[in-house]
Structure formats: C-alpha cells, structure tokens
Design goal:
With 200 residues, the chain is of the alpha+beta class. Helix content is 34%, strand content 19%. It has helices at residues 6-30, 42-45, 52-55, 61-69, 108-114, 129-133, 152-156, 162-165, 186-189, and strands spanning 76-87, 96-100, 119-123, 138-141, 157-160, 168-175. A 4-stranded mixed sheet has the order 2-1-6-3. Strands 4-5 form a two-stranded antiparallel sheet. 26% of the residues are buried.
C-alpha cells in the first residue's frame, strides 16, 4: 500500500472513499443534516479525470466523490506561489522544513502570483467567468508528503485543467510550513509507526 504505483495509489484512495461512505451512512441515520469535510492534498481531492493521473489509470477521492455524490460534493483546492513546507526528501524519510521554490511562470500558481493579491479565492462553477479562463490545461504544482526542489519540474508539475478539477480554489501567495502543536515521538506514546508493518 505504501509503494509508488498506480495500484497503490488507487488502493489508498479507494480506502478513503470506503471510509467516507461508511461515515456518511452512519451520519445519515444519526444526524441526517450533517456535512463531511475531507482535508487532503490537492492530488487526492481534485478530480483525477482532469489531470494526467486519470489518463494514467489513477483515480482519487475527488473523482470518486463526484461520481457518487454529484452536486452534493464540492472539491476545493489550495495553491501557493512560495513559502515553506514540511515534507520529506524521500518516501519514508524524516519530515523537514523546506523552502518552496517560486512557482513557474507558466503554471497556475505563477499566473495567480501575477495577480498581485496575497490571498484570494475563485469560484470555478460553470456559470462563473473564471471557469472558461482556467479550463485551458496548464501546469499545476503538487507538493505532498515528499518535496524535491532540485527536480521540481519533473517531480511536482503536471498538466491539468483547474476548472474541471476543482469547484473552487483558495490561493495563498506565500505559505508557512505546518508545525506540530506539541512535538511527540511515536516511541514516547508506545505506538507503532504509521507505516507499520511495512516501515519495519
């Protein structure tokens, strides 16, 4: 499950979807008016069909929720131009605070930087003027668990249609790395690592 492959990716996001469906069924009985928020990287919540992921046979929870819930779900993405991020250099590597390189000028993030507004949101509903303008495929940057600035173009940029991927975008021109509220090692808690048993 923790390997880099299409089947591994699909297995993870299928599991996320099964968890969501189970939670939705539970809430439907106990609290019918409940809403569920899934917080994940853009590559998970943006509709995979609008990216090269979909063309490579990958799906994600963004696609699966749209297929199952239709207008009952909203996919919201986040972008940034520069700042810092907490990420590893390699899979299973330690988390580090890293400087995010300024986005390429030919990317959505570069385009949003040119607007000159530090933070803004865009409604990408089909009725909005922005929808058609951001439907044309451009490069989009994905920074997740791993960030490799030295090979950023090959490792983190991919062509996508933002309007088909998301219902809205929230852009922060500069971001700051996530910091734990209280650093605690898993050894101190007496719990196995998150990747147990494959991380052994």
């Amino acid at each position: 499950m923790f390997r880099e492959s299409v089947s591994s990716w699909n297995l993870r996001d299928q599991h996320m979807m099964e968890t969501l469906n189970t939670l939705a069924e539970y809430l439907e009985v106990r609290r019918p008016a409940s809403k569920i928020v899934i917080w994940a990287h853009n590559s998970h919540v943006g509709d995979a069909r609008a990216t090269q992921m979909g063309r490579a046979g990958e799906w994600n929870i963004g696609q699966l929720t749209r297929e199952k819930y239709g207008d009952g779900c909203r996919n919201i993405g986040f972008t940034t131009y520069t700042g810092t991020v907490t990420a590893a250099s390699e899979w299973d590597g330690p988390a580090e605070r890293k400087q995010v390189r300024p986005a390429r000028a030919d990317s959505y993030e570069g385009l949003f930087h040119q607007v000159g507004i530090p933070a803004f949101s865009l409604n990408l509903n089909e009725d909005s003027h922005v929808f058609n303008g951001l439907r044309e495929p451009m490069l989009e940057r994905a920074i997740g668990v791993v960030y490799r600035p030295a090979s950023e173009l090959a490792s983190h940029y991919f062509p996508a249609s933002l309007s088909d991927q998301f219902d809205a975008i929230i852009h922060f021109d500069q971001t700051r790395a996530v910091e734990p509220l209280e650093p605690i090692s898993t050894e101190a808690l007496g719990e196995p690592a998150e990747t147990f048993p494959s991380g052994i």
